[in-house]
Each structure stands twice: as structure tokens, then as C-alpha cells.
């Protein structure tokens, strides 16, 4: 009986030890899981904040480029209207024409998109750390959206390049330089045999190039830019909701 009594106590002690070990393991697993969850959430939060920052910067760039495109488009419409009206063409001065033509030589319409954070997330596998499927889906497809806008921007750039080339080959570039003040800066004497550039406004080929520019510019401004702006605003709104839900 004494032996059985000691064995019973030993058995209870052993069972208690096992229970304590199991409880300790469960607590450790729980704490480790909590730490992993916290780390996961912080990584997601950091990724989302970086993406939102990039989107905000890209929206500002889009606003600037869209305004520049509006100025170029307005200028192109003015040139077309003058080409279609003999009275406007005859009364147009060479300095005013040079100012109009100069618009085609200004910087190209292209947004320097920031996508460093997006690329880091995509190529490092960080997209798996974003639990919101809508956000991760937009991020995964973002490169395609950028390429779509860039394609249209390239078409506008090519149309602009065609106009520039035509001006170089058929225009009076020296007169253009004089009217814009570049010749004076460069120390070049005023030409005594300047023919001017009104002949360009009587060229059907030049008119076709302007039509081409307007067509591509219209598609970029009325279709691609609004679509891209909406997509950026959408992802920023989703990120705000996701960050607020984790608070």
C-alpha cells in the first residue's frame, strides 16, 4: 500500500510536470505568434506608407505634366486656326509666330514616375505581406498601368519630334532664334536675309503633323491621364482605410 501510495504521488507529480511543460510550450508559441503577427503588421504598414508616398508624389507630377500638355494643346489649336484663316495668317507677326512655334520645342510630356517602393514590394515578395487583396492586386498590376500611360506619352513625344524635325528641315530656324532672343545671347548677328516661318503655316504636311500631335495629346489628356489619376486615388484611399483599420 505504501509503495502504491508513493507511486500515485509520483504519477501525479509527473503529470503535473508534463502539464507545466505543455503550458510553457503553448505560452511560448503564443508569444512567438504574437511577435510574428506584430512584425507582419509593421512590415505591411511600412510598405503601404511607402506606396502611398509614391502615389502622392506621382499625382503631383501628373498635375504638372497635364498642365503643360494643356498649354501645348492650346498652342497647337491656335496654330491650326491661324492656318485655316487667311486674315489671321496675314496679320500674324513673325515674333508672335516664333512664340507659337517655340512651344513645340519645350520639354516633352512625360512623367518621371516614382516606383522604387512598388518594385521593392513586388520583386522582394513583399506583396504577400499585404493582406488586403484589392491593394495587392493593384500593386501587382501597376507596372502594366504605367506602361500603358508611357505608351501614349511616347506617341505624343514622337508626334512632337516630327514637328521639330519639320521645323529644322523647312523652317527659318535663325529667325526663330532671333525672335526668341537666343541669337543675342549667343552673340550671333541678326540675319539680313531672313525669310521667316509663315511658309510653314501654308504646308499641308506641317498641318498633318499638328493634327497628329493633337490626336495623341487628346487621347493622353482625356483618357489615359484621368484613368491613371483615378487608379492612384483609389489605391491611396484603400491604403488609408487599411492603415486606419489597424489602429
Describe the structure.
The longest helix is centred in the N-terminal third of the chain and has 82 residues, at 2-83. This protein has helices at 2-83, 86-91, 94-102, 116-123, 133-140, 142-170, 173-179, 182-186, 204-245. The model has no long low-confidence stretch (mean pLDDT 84). The protein has nine helices and no strands. It has one domain (2-245). Helix content is 79%, strand content 0%. By secondary structure, it is mostly helical. Residues 52-86 form a coiled coil. The chain crosses the membrane at residues 12-31. Keywords: Coiled coil, Membrane, Transmembrane, Transmembrane helix.
Contiguous runs where pLDDT drops below 50 for at least 5 residues: none
Structural class determined from secondary elements: mainly alpha
Largest sheet: none
Number of H- or I-type helical stretches: 9
Number of strands: 0
User: Helical residue percent?
Assistant: over 70%
Computed CA radius of gyration, to the nearest angstrom: 33 Å
Keywords: Coiled coil, Membrane, Transmembrane, Transmembrane helix
Transmembrane segments: 12-31
Coiled coil: 52-86
Helices and strands, with pairings:
Elements: H1 2-83, H2 86-91, H3 94-102, H4 116-123, H5 133-140, H6 142-170, H7 173-179, H8 182-186, H9 204-245
Amino acid at each position: 500500500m505504501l509503495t502504491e501510495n508513493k507511486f500515485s504521488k509520483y504519477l501525479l507529480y509527473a503529470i503535473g510536470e508534463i502539464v507545466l511543460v505543455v503550458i510553457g510550450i503553448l505560452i511560448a508559441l503564443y508569444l512567438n505568434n504574437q511577435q510574428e503577427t506584430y512584425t507582419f503588421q509593421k512590415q505591411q504598414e511600412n510598405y503601404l506608407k511607402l506606396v502611398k508616398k509614391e502615389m502622392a508624389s506621382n499625382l503631383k507630377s501628373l498635375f504638372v505634366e497635364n498642365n503643360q500638355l494643356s498649354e501645348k494643346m492650346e498652342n497647337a489649336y491656335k496654330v491650326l486656326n491661324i492656318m485655316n484663316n487667311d486674315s489671321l495668317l496675314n496679320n500674324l507677326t513673325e515674333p508672335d509666330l516664333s512664340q507659337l512655334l517655340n512651344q513645340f520645342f519645350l520639354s516633352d510630356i512625360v512623367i518621371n514616375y516614382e516606383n522604387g517602393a512598388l518594385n521593392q514590394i513586388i520583386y522582394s515578395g513583399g506583396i504577400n505581406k499585404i493582406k488586403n487583396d484589392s491593394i495587392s492586386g493593384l500593386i501587382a498590376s501597376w507596372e502594366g498601368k504605367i506602361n500603358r500611360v508611357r505608351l501614349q506619352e511616347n506617341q505624343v513625344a514622337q508626334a512632337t519630334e516630327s514637328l521639330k524635325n519639320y521645323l529644322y528641315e523647312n523652317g527659318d530656324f535663325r529667325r526663330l532664334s532671333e525672335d526668341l532672343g537666343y541669337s543675342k545671347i549667343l552673340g550671333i548677328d541678326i540675319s539680313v536675309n531672313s525669310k521667316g516661318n509663315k511658309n510653314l503655316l501654308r504646308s499641308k504636311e506641317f498641318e498633318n503633323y499638328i493634327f497628329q500631335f493633337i490626336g495623341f495629346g487628346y487621347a493622353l489628356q482625356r483618357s489615359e491621364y484621368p484613368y491613371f489619376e483615378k487608379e492612384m486615388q483609389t489605391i491611396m484611399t484603400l491604403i488609408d482605410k487599411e492603415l486606419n483599420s489597424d489602429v
